[in-house]
Design a protein that fits this description.
Number of helices: 2
Radius of gyration: 61 Å
Order of helices and strands: HH
Helix content: over 70%
Strand content: under 5%
Distance between the termini: 165 Å
Structural class: mainly alpha
Number of strands: 0
Oligomer: single chain
Shape: rod-shaped
Length: 163
């Protein structure tokens, strides 16, 4: 049982393992390390690209948010301008309506004054006729019509009955 371990076989295996390591180091290890380095750089590049894209996205987001705030401010300003314009137009319409109402009122007052003068003149003529008839009956004498009217008209103007 003392020879359970064959030292030649162990030495051959150790020597084979060392030759394998040397061969891998000389021919394969550099390629594997190069491949791993290339892969590491590619992954780092992708992370850098992702970071740049995220930064660009954040910049775009902040720019769009600023534009939205500007659009909102412009919309508010336009609403305020529209309200101001509406108030201005409303004031103009009210002023025009007031002017038209004042004009109509003035014309109505003038019309009333003319009608009043016509009514006074008609009433004066009727009073003159009644006075002439009354005076004619009382006096039972007749003057000519034109002189009677003139006398009665002067009498009424002196008395001021219609004023």
């Amino acid at each position: 049982m003392g020879n359970l371990i064959d030292f030649r076989q162990v030495a051959t295996q150790v020597l084979g393992f060392l030759v394998l390591l040397w061969g891998l180091k000389k021919f394969g290890w550099g390629r594997v390390l190069g491949w791993l380095e290339t892969r590491r750089q590619a992954i780092a590049g992708e992370f850098d690209l992702a970071a740049r894209k995220q930064s660009e996205a954040e910049q775009l987001k902040s720019r769009y948010e600023q534009e939205l705030r500007n659009i909102d401010a412009q919309a508010r300003q336009k609403i305020q301008e529209a309200v101001a314009e509406g108030q201005r137009v409303s004031a103009e319409i009210k002023a025009q309506a007031n002017r038209e109402a004042s004009d109509r009122f003035a014309r109505a007052e003038e019309e009333i004054a003319r009608e009043r003068e016509k009514a006074k003149e008609l009433l004066k003529q009727q009073v003159i006729q009644l006075s002439v008839r009354g005076a004619e009956k009382i006096l039972r004498q007749k003057l000519d019509d034109a002189s009677q009217r003139r006398l009665v008209g002067e009498f009424i103007d002196e008395v001021g009955v219609l004023d």
